[in-house]
Structures are given as C-alpha cells and as structure tokens.
Amino acid sequence: MAEVHVAVGVILDTQGRILLTRRARDAHQGGLWEFPGGKVEPRETLESALARELREELGIAIGRTSPLVAVRHDYGDKQVLLDVHIVWEHTGEARGLENQPMAWVEVGDLPDYAFPAANVPIVAAVQEHFA
Fold first, then answer.
1. How do residues 45-68 score in pLDDT, each as one tens digit?
2. Domains in the chain and their CATH numbers?
3. pTM of this prediction?
4. Is 59 helix (H, G, I), strand (E, B) or coil?
C-alpha cells in the first residue's frame, strides 16, 4: 500500500486562532475536523502543494510558513504522511470553496473537536508550540 503524502496547514488568524475544516461525510475519516491541506502531487514540492491546496480549498494565498511536525499514520486501509506547516501569514478571507464547514478555534479549545487519529499528534504539537 502506497503512502499518501499530504501537505497540511495550521493557519493562524490575527487573534492567534487556528482554522479547522470538517471532512465531507463520504470522504475517508468523513465528518471529522482537520487542519486543511491535501495530497502532494508527483513532482510537486511540499510548499507548492500547500499553497495550491489552500488556494483551492479556502481561497487564500499563503505567506510565511514554518515546519511544525511530520506525522506518519497507518489507518489499515490507508497510510499517510502528514507534513505540517504553521501558516503565519496569508492573504484573502478563508472560505469553504468545497462547501466544507469551517471554524476558527482557540488553541485551548482544540481538544473539544473530533479529529482523525493521524491529526492527534498535530493537536499535541500545536498545543506545545503555543503553550
């Protein structure tokens, strides 16, 4: 089974809140909240994949980012490598271009949201980074 490489953004707003989106019900891990992003295509860099995915999903252009954590997870039916970057700056107002629900969440409120198992280490890394 091939591993799916995913570029993930922990997007901050000017108040330090983090953007979460909810996965479509019919998607893998559907109905759960996640940090936005998507698959890195062949011959695409992580940075260009992150910029493309956030533009396509949310209508934003990213500015300064920095690496946060890389997470490998095996769901049994799918293996993923989540390459996570903090998005410190972006332009445009984030909106759900794929009709996905969105929420701007305080770091301390992240545990109140149901995430896919692969996102649990991301939540921990965010909480540690912004403690």
1. 999 999 999 999 999 999 999 999
2. 3-129 (3.90.79.10)
3. 0.93
4. coil
